[in-house]
């Protein structure tokens, strides 16, 4: 069965996004949508096992993407900060 859940549209948008500058915000919004769906399922009937697995997979995917995004952003930062902090001039 190939069911499309509402939160999946946001998840797919994050996965397909090519502008890395937009990823942190998209990840945050999508994570919130997934968390909201999980809360909704806990209050109601729990949903199908397929959706529960899809939610778990999506959260894991967001975690990996978030880590990669963070590493990319950090790699773009100037490395001069570390060199200038805590070093004194000695002649």
SSE topology string: HHHH
Report the major sheet.
Answer: none
Number of structural units classed as domains: 1
Global structural class: mainly alpha
- Low-confidence segments: none
What's the helix count?
Answer: 4
Cα-to-Cα separation, first versus last residue = 72 Å
Average residue-wise pLDDT: 85
**Beta strand count:** 0
Question: What does the secondary structure layout of this molecule look like, with pairings?
Answer:
Elements lengths: L5 H11 L6 H21 L5 H28 L3 H5 L7
How would you describe the overall organization of this protein?
The protein has one domain (7-75). It has helices at 6-16, 23-43, 49-76, 80-84. The protein is elongated, with a radius of gyration of 19 Å. The chain is mainly alpha-helical and 91 residues long. It contains four helices and no strands.
Offer a concise description of the structure.
This protein is mostly helical and 91 residues long. It has four helices and no strands.
Index terms:
single chain; 91 residues; mainly alpha; elongated
């Amino acid at each position: 069965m190939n069911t499309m859940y509402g939160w999946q549209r946001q998840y797919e948008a994050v996965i397909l996004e090519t502008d890395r500058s937009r990823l942190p915000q998209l990840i945050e919004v999508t994570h919130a949508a997934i968390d909201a769906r999980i809360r909704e399922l806990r209050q109601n009937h729990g949903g199908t096992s397929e959706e529960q697995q899809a939610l778990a997979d999506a959260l894991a995917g967001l975690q990996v993407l978030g880590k990669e995004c963070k590493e990319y952003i950090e790699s773009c930062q100037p490395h001069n900060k570390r060199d200038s902090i805590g070093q004194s001039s000695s002649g």
